[in-house]
Prior knowledge:
By secondary structure, the chain is of the alpha/beta class. The chain has helices at residues 114-119, 140-143, 157-169, 192-198, 225-232, 245-257, 290-293, 299-303, and strands at 28-30, 36-38, 47-58, 61-68, 82-87, 91-96, 99-100, 105-110, 126-134, 148-153, 177-183, 205-211, 221-222, 238-242, 265-268, 284-285, 288-289, 296-298.
Amino acid sequence: MFVHKIPTAHIHDPQNTSAGLGNSTAQGYFAANGQPVPAGPNPLLPQRGVIAKIKTETSDTKTFSITGFDGAKPFTPLPGQLGMLSLPAYGEAMFSVTSQDQTHIDMTIKAVGALTNALHEIEEGQECGIRGPYGNGFPLDFCRGKDLTFIAGGIGLAPVRSLIKYCLDNRADFGKLTIVYGARTSDDLVFKEDLFENWPEAENKNLHLTIDREEEAWPGHVGFVPSYVEELALPPTVAIVCGPPIMIKFTLANLEKMGFLPNEVITTMEMRMKCGIGKCGRCNIGSCFVCLDGPVFTLEQLNAMPAEY
């Protein structure tokens, strides 16, 4: 286990208390080398945060609760928006915000590389960098008053959960909620407290769980999410889809076959985001920038994009 401290020169500090920024002027800051820095915060510099709580979801997935140094959450995202989380000496990456309250935002992160593996080794109290929110989020006004179908696979439940929780917190504003969620094994199901305790108690909802392979102790459905969606013969509603790319691909195709309208099928493409502000070009698809125009898109929008997505 380890805890790093963030060098003050890399912290967004509009009061200019960080030595690395030099002296302030009416026009802006002077950097340590004497060169002027434009007035206003640099959108690529994170603010200082603390990982206040860490919850283990599965063997390779944890939820990190991040708060600001003032005890308040670092920003207020809409459901489906993201934040950039950084760890000194390891870099930064974009993650969805899966839930929030007045004091913190939650990011659920799977260990898949250098940064995420390092995050899985830290202790509570770790200092971090955090910036955001980014992206357009889910279309709340469009969803209000409608029945909603949420379809997720694996860690893809993390961004979808933000909208599910919003709907449950504002239950009168939305119609029937149908949740279809699957993972490789029962151990790989994330947010088990929601799946088996909180959401089953919610009113006017259906919850369908599946795993890819049979298990002796598993009493539920066995099969892949796209085929389960078709097997359930769900009536066309507004559908929100997220999961591994191959799962999204086949689920979107099945929803079209089942009569779901392309403008009412919604997914998120956050895995392509890098800088978050349209500067690096990593997320562009044709003339579209996922970080500026998305990451939430309808199937109708995706069908109009170049095939590279």
